[in-house]
Amino acid sequence: MRKRILAVVIAVLCCLSLVMGVAASDGSYIVVNGNAVELSRAPVTIGGRKMVPIRAVAEAMRCEVGWDAELQAAIISNGEVSLSLRIDHVDMKVTDANGEYTVMMDVPPILIDGTTYLPLRVVVEALGGSVYWDGDSGVTYIDYPAKTEEVAEETFTSNHNPSAHTFYFQNEARFNLPYNGSGYCWVCSYAMVLTDVMGYPITPVDVAAVNSSNGANGNYCYHAQIVSTFGAKFVPAVDPSSPYYRDYNVWFGLTYLNTPDEQSAINALKEALDRNPAGVLVRFEGFSPHTIVAIGYEGNTIYFNEPMPCGYGYSESSIYQSVTFDQTHPGGYCGFGLKDMTAIQAIARQ
User: Fold this and answer.
1) Beta strand 44-46 pairing with 254-257
2) pTM > 0.70: yes or no
3) Among 70, 94, 183, 333, which residue has the fewest nearby CB atoms (within 10 Å)?
4) Is 54:37 a contact under the CB 8 Å cutoff?
5) Are residues 304 and 185 in contact, defined by beta-carbon separation less than 8 angstroms?
């Protein structure tokens, strides 16, 4: 199953690299649990082993990184396993529940222009992860299981509480969006979720400005640039091990779901909201592409913030905040069911 998922992700990345004019093989990033992690410097290969500036990768794996000046050693710990790797030495000290022991490496850590490079695979595997390198795309993937206590900290009960969520309406006069906000559903949805994730006001005008700064209309979404501008990142909306998970697009943050019927779609959204209580963006394609925000649920009823007036005329009085799906544009105007959602997006702080 994991190989199939990785193969799909690789195909998506390769296609995107052609569309965006970016070479996937430049080695500037590594994918950790579905998230692209930029490296401070390009990797190097020594003795057939890939050596990388390890800090960004280790932190993406929720590990602490330190430096022992006396030993000239990098110290990496995930709370259960601690590694000590000395510059120019092939013996790695490992401390875990079994005590302290030594692992001999093929190549030693090195310093290049003041940056510490460590052998990627041996470090990741010693910490309990796995590494997969795709030779065609040049992309390295790391699968690193979250610790039990971390999962517990991130699991919430998603009660329906409208006052806990920001709402923006496409036609709000204070924003003065072009064409009464027509076409700005994704922009408004981003602004709603980003505000609640980051804890400070981010308006549709702010999001539209990111699009405009990249040379496009304000409603054309530069997804990765939008979230990074405001100190956020995309994360998979449901766990990759979930029965509702089908695929994940790293660059656009789109989680594609396996939801053949309405109940599975409801269950998937409930799982996504438990993991992402600030809300998740829900995208519908078809003859009327549209994005809304799921903000909570009660039983099997999912509630949404609908940024547009559902096709019934742009009026300040037609505000659809905290409504059931049949009151949204996809459900009430287009006749879609929840199972017809194309993908969902979740955002977290960097």
Assistant:
1) unpaired
2) no
3) 70
4) no
5) no
